[in-house]
Amino acid sequence: MYQIFQFLLQKIKIKRNFVLIFVASIICFFVLLFFADKITEKIVHKNKEVNVPDLITLPIDKVDEILKKIKLNYVIESEIYDIKIASGCVISQLPIKDTIVRQGRVIKLIISRGGNKVEVPLLISMPQRIAELTIKNSALVVGQEEYAYSLIMASGRIMQQKPAANSLVIKDSMVNLKISKGSPPDNIKLMPLILNMTLDESTALLTQNEINFVINEVSASSDVPKNTVVKQNPEVDEVLKKNSKVILEIAV
């Protein structure tokens, strides 16, 4: 009987010791966790606070120099085409300028790959179909197509284009076209082309078409012939309203 009692007592002691060891382990774990958190907090907060500088439009080597001085890091998240920002320069940043951060913070950047520009071809007077093919072959896209009557351009040919010929634009930009419908019907009066005509020729043409006009004399360079039209308003082929007046600028 005594031996049984001793055996049970020994078992109880073993279980009690196990419980004590388990509880002690839990306490140690939370104590270590508490101190680890405090140490991490001290490490983080020992870094000074700094203002994020404005990096927009700066080249990446300059960005690197500026951020190193104030102990900030950066990462380039992507590079995209941009006609306004030069290649290798910052388009956007996060956090934005004047944000207060701690040293060591990573600034996320998007960098320009440049405009990837192409030249707009001259399309004026081309047949519509040829102009459309020319646009596509120039790595551009046919945009809005508008139709209007014209005194100087045959039906189906390009009267106007936007952007203008020889402009530099981003690849895949749209080119809008105005296409001639040919001569206008009798009830529509268009502005004739009088640019570079003499004063007598231009006034005779306007009078013949019953178009009111005003003459302004302007100084011109020596290579411009005297008494010639150097500017007209409205432009050629614009619709003239009833009683509207045309302004002629004559070189003197």
Give me some keywords for this one.
three-stranded mixed β-sheet; 28% strand; 13 strands
Report a brief summary of the structure:
The protein has 252 residues and is an alpha/beta fold.
Written account of the structure:
The protein has 252 residues and is an alpha/beta fold. It has 4 helices and 13 strands. 29% of the residues lie in helices and 28% in strands. Strands 2-5-3 form a 3-stranded mixed β-sheet, with helices on one face. Strands 7-10-8 form a 3-stranded mixed β-sheet, covered by helices on one side. It has a 3-stranded mixed β-sheet with strand order 11-13-12, with helices on one face. The chain starts with a helix and ends with a strand. The mean pLDDT is 87.
